[in-house]
């Protein structure tokens, strides 16, 4: 895996073997190079090369007894990221269900995934006119209400990268101008919510507010979406208050104290 000359089937095989090593160490709570090589069915030198690559990334570490390996802190970091996402989904479920029931529309929680927003949980209200499941779906940052919230609070490199590239136009209402988009992000930071009016899909409007973690950083966005004829622009400020309250409830559950 550390050999840059590997490609195609050989690279896939190396990745598979490296993952198998992690499973072996998780099951055995530690093992030596010879044991790992024997279980993988490879030469000791091959096992050592794979272990060295994993050790360099922090996924395995050598125990006090030289030659014995165990899982490293790199695995803990990955597990922590997954746990945080699952915890966010779990903590937000009740607030999303309540907001969806109160307003009758679809409520989602989305997180930042590179330069996209990805929805991790969804609740549907009784008046929802669509059965589309947004969970797991990646959506553009510049054309969705959740995306605008995440982008407004994104790390500087992400914000700069999105503003540097010409945004894709999805409808006639999509905001594609850098100056106009930057101004919208400023307003989103100032007032604590963002909206989209038929910018991603014709006939679909949405309002979103930030969810904060224990340290106050924005970790997700909670949004409500519905048909433009029902969730119209005049309703945005009133709906935003409800969305901000729900997002604040989830933030409190995540440990944030204003």
From TrEMBL:
Protein's name in the database: Glycerol operon regulatory protein
Boundaries of every IclR-ED domain copy: 74-256
Alphabetic keyword roster: DNA-binding, Glycerol metabolism, Transcription, Transcription regulation
GO biological-process terms attached to the record: glycerol metabolic process; negative regulation of DNA-templated transcription
Gene Ontology molecular functions: DNA binding; DNA-binding transcription factor activity
Pfam families: HTH_IclR, IclR_C
Domain HTH iclR-type: from-to ranges: 12-73
Role of this protein: May be an activator protein for the gylABX operon.
């Amino acid at each position: 895996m550390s050999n840059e000359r590997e490609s195609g089937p050989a690279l896939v095989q190396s990745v598979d073997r490296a993952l198998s090593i992690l499973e072996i160490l998780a099951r055995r709570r530690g093992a030596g190079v010879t044991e790992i090589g024997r279980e993988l069915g490879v030469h000791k030198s091959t096992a050592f090369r794979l272990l060295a690559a994993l050790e360099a990334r922090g996924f395995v570490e050598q125990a006090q007894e030289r030659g014995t390996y165990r899982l490293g802190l790199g695995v803990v970091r990955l597990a922590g990221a997954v746990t945080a996402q699952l915890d966010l989904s779990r903590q937000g479920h009740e607030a999303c269900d309540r907001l969806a029931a109160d307003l009758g529309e679809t409520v989602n929680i989305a997180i930042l995934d590179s330069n996209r927003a990805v929805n991790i949980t969804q609740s549907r209200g009784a008046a929802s006119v669509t059965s589309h499941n947004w969970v797991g779906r990646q959506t553009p940052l510049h054309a969705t209400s959740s995306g605008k919230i995440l982008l407004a609070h994104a790390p500087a490199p992400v914000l700069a990268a999105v503003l540097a590239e010409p945004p894709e136009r999805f409808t006639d209402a999509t905001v594609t101008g850098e100056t106009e988009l930057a101004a919208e992000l400023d307003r989103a930071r100032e007032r604590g919510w963002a909206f989209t009016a038929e910018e991603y899909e014709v006939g679909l409007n949405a309002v979103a507010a930030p969810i904060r973690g224990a340290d106050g950083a924005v970790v997700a966005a909670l949004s409500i979406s519905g048909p433009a004829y029902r969730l119209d622009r005049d309703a945005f400020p009133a709906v935003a208050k409800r969305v901000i309250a729900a997002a604040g409830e989830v933030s409190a559950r995540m440990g944030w104290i204003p």
